[in-house]
Design a protein that fits this description.
This protein has 463 residues and is an alpha+beta fold. Among the domains are: 103 residues, Rieske Iron-sulfur Protein (3-layer Sandwich), CATH 2.102.10; 214 residues, Naphthalene 1,2-dioxygenase Alpha Subunit, Chain A, domain 1 (Alpha-Beta Complex). Helices cover 22% and strands 33% of the residues. It contains 8 helices and 23 strands. The protein has a 9-stranded mixed sheet with strand order 1-16-23-22-21-20-19-18-17, with helices on both faces. A 5-stranded antiparallel sheet has the order 6-7-8-9-10, with no helix packed on it. The chain has a 4-stranded antiparallel sheet with strand order 3-4-5-13, with no helix packed on it. A hairpin with a 2-residue loop joins strand 3 and strand 4. The chain is globular, with a radius of gyration of 29 Å. The N and C termini lie far apart (80 Å).
């Protein structure tokens, strides 16, 4: 084998076969160093990939010809919507959002707070969210003519005082067409002065909780700044850490997605199978938080689960929000070759139409999922799930759990993307599953108050 190798090189190589040779020790040390470097590189790549695992589905949903949708409720119910993660909006950064049938300019002032205003300038209609500049700690300047709006009040303002921080309302005159469709004249003019005074933009209530930016969307003008309930003040405990997010795009009415949280039977058909010899069995309970027996109904037979669940109910259900929260309890069992084992329990709080918080508890871990839905268009929803997990859980494991959750969402999407909204429903009221669905729809309908009138008026002005 070594016949063609020079004798000096053969002598050198043969030294490595001698266990007592100094060169052998050198070789072993070099091997250890190389193995350590490779291990560190591999671990670094592993941490980079899975520490904050992101699954972002390509937003490629398209309409394929005409599709039957059925008669639908309004498309943008009233509630809190998670529009951005906190780290997606830096200080002095401005973004334009076209969500929930609204056009919103959202920005972070130099004071650190987030503000949201109607995106189109009251002067000439420029989009403040595209090229707008943050001024005077909380104001937004139009990129077209430099008009400035206070993000807190919506007032059009000018700076005053030596520091320029004092804001004074700008006096303007408002003109409008006599009839913009027919373009008729009045007193020889097409435009008529209709008022004089101060100008302002519509503002939106914003809350920043646990790394999420929430905006209150309401079709009722009187409730725009008097929201009836708050998003849950979720506090991720010191032993949990953010592990990633999944983002999916669904082609359906928004109500189809949260309705899953009350649909007990669909788990048996869409979420049962895992691999050939492993199945999931699910036991689910859904109940309104306002029901007097909510604590009794949510009682769990396992003491450590029940203690965890009751603490959550006492912490997050209040007199102010109980009418707007639906609670679920979901037991997951793993069935392997006929042997059934308890895996975890999930306690879920559906808060309004677009936020769901799931608290998973087992004997070995705690995991929190935050689900948020954003209607991008009438039948186009952005669904995201953020995951927080016990710090000691391996990154790869939580990435796998998030990916497994995505697979369950994809199973649902196969149905959502192709179904019609059922407005006339045949229920079997002898079963608890359909009684629960009927009750849930009656509960959810409250979030549509005033939405039909708002959307009908908005349709007249949309392209």
């Amino acid at each position: 084998m070594f016949s063609k190798i020079p004798s000096q090189l053969k002598d050198f190589l043969s030294q490595f076969n001698d266990a007592n040779s100094p060169s052998s020790d050198c070789y072993c040390s070099l091997t250890l160093v190389i193995a350590t470097v490779i291990g560190l590189v591999v671990y670094g790549l592993y941490v980079r990939k899975f520490r904050h695992y992101i699954y972002h589905q390509v937003n490629d949903i398209k309409e394929e010809g005409r599709r039957v949708r059925g008669k639908c409720p309004p498309f943008f119910p009233n509630g809190w919507y998670r529009v951005l993660n906190s780290d997606e909006l830096r200080t002095k950064e401005v973004k334009y959002l076209d969500y929930c049938g609204r056009h919103i300019a959202i920005y972070r002032g130099t004071n650190g707070r987030v503000y949201a205003v109607h995106a189109f300038c009251a002067h000439m209609g420029a989009n403040l969210g595209v090229g707008g500049v943050v001024k005077s700690s909380k104001c937004l300047q139009c990129p077209f003519h430099g008009w400035v709006f206070d993000g807190e009040t919506g007032d059009c303002v000018v700076s005053a005082g030596e520091s320029g921080e004092k804001l004074v309302k700008k006096t303007v005159e408002t003109y409008e067409y006599n009839d913009i469709k027919k373009l008729t004249k009045k007193d020889g003019k097409y435009l008529t002065k209709c008022s004089e005074g101060h100008s302002k933009l519509k503002t939106y209530e914003v809350k920043e909780i646990n790394g999420s930016i929430m905006v209150w969307i309401d079709s009722r003008e009187e409730n725009q700044h008097k929201y009836p309930f708050e998003p849950l003040p979720i506090e991720i405990k010191s032993y949990q850490s953010y592990r990633g997010e999944s983002i999916n795009y669904v082609n359906c009415h928004i109500q189809e997605i949260p309705e899953n949280g009350a649909d007990i039977r669909h788990f048996d058909f869409l979420h049962r199978s895992f691999v050939a010899f492993i199945n999931f069995d699910w036991v689910m309970t859904s109940h309104r938080a306002s029901s007097p027996d909510i604590f009794e109904v949510m009682t769990h037979k396992r003491a450590f689960i029940n203690d965890f669940k009751q603490k959550l109910l006492k912490r997050y259900i209040t007199e102010e929000n109980k009418n707007y929260v639906n609670v679920i309890s979901l037991d997951c069992y793993v069935n392997i070759l006929g042997f059934k084992f308890f895996f975890f329990n999930a306690t879920g709080f559906q808060v309004g139409p677009a936020l769901v918080y799931l608290f998973l508890k087992s004997r070995i871990f705690e995991i929190t999922f935050e689900q948020a839905i954003i209607p991008m268009q009438k039948f186009h929803q952005r669904v995201s799930h953020k995951i927080y997990a016990s710090r000691y859980l391996p990154y790869g494991l939580t990435a796998f759990m998030l990916y497994s959750e995505v697979q369950q969402v994809l199973n649902d999407m196969d149905i959502w993307n192709k179904k019609v909204f059922g407005d006339r429903l045949n229920y079997n009221m002898k079963t608890g599953a359909d009684v629960n669905l009927c009750s849930w729809r009656n509960w959810f309908a409250q979030f549509y108050d005033g939405c039909h009138e708002y959307e009908k008026a908005s349709d007249l002005n949309d392209w």
